[in-house]
Design a protein that fits this description.
The protein is of the alpha+beta class. It contains ten helices and four strands; from the N terminus they run βαβααββααααααα.
Length: about 220
């Protein structure tokens, strides 16, 4: 089955999928939404969010749904732990990144705050910092309560939770000046992940549409 990933270099939800594809060694075609235009992309993915995966002639939006598909269809190497409780904990950890952090810090939310509700840049920064700190504090505590201090979130090999955590941490440090000092467990796992080939291959700088530096989307 031919797989086509619609994403762009800076798309952190897409980066999760790119890491999974690389960890599983799956071939796919990369299509930059910036290059085909949003008008064209909207016809492909009515949710109008990146990423989306085209499987044959079918489209699947939402990174989590795509990751579930990949895990079910390409089970080796498994990204979720074998133990059912650890699996649930890995999913819960990932869901915290997706729903309680990323969904709140995306550009369309910041644009709405700024353009519709009149929040100034200082207020936007406050919003951003609050949700990054709130999210990372909860994730750090989840890691601290693990029964085993694994190298990665829930095992000795990188998986589901790590591929959610790493792009969020990288983005927090590089683009939002998040101070990671209060989160030593997260920082240790992030450090272990960013040196791995699958994680490097998924970074913004390795994508064909990378313009040489990350260009921050404008609020207005
Ligand atoms: N819940 C979605 C979120 C996708 C999402 O928000 N993607 C961002 C980029 S990281 C996007 O498409 N932003 C375009 C916009 O906000 O207009 C997922 O996990 O796939």
């Amino acid at each position: 089955m031919t797989l086509t990933l619609y994403s762009n270099y800076v798309n952190s939800a897409g980066e999760r999928v790119r890491i999974a594809l690389a960890l599983k060694g799956i071939d796919y075609e990369y299509v930059s939404v910036g290059e085909i235009s949003w008008e064209v992309y909207e016809r492909i993915n009515p949710q109008r969010l990146m990423p989306a995966l085209k499987i044959g002639d079918q489209i699947v939006p939402q990174a989590t749904a795509i990751l579930e598909y990949l895990e079910e269809t390409y089970p080796k190497p498994a990204l979720l732990p074998a133990d059912p409780v650890l699996r649930a904990q890995a999913r819960a950890f990932a869901q915290h990144v997706v729903s309680e952090m990323h969904a709140i810090d995306v550009i369309r939310v910041r644009r709405f705050l700024h353009n519709q509700l009149g929040v100034d840049q200082e207020g936007i920064d406050h919003w951003q910092n609050h949700w990054f700190a709130n999210g990372f504090a909860a994730l750090e505590e989840l890691l601290a309560r693990r029964q085993t201090a694994w190298t990665f979130c829930f095992g000795e090999t990188p998986g589901w939770a790590d591929l959610h955590l790493t792009p969020q941490v990288t983005k927090g440090i590089a683009r939002f000046n998040v101070d990671m000092a209060p989160y030593p467990l997260i920082s240790g796992i992030h450090k272990a992940c960013v040196t791995l080939p699958a994680f490097i291959a998924a970074t913004p700088a390795e994508q064909p549409d990378y313009p040489g530096r990350v260009i921050e989307p404008k609020l207005r």
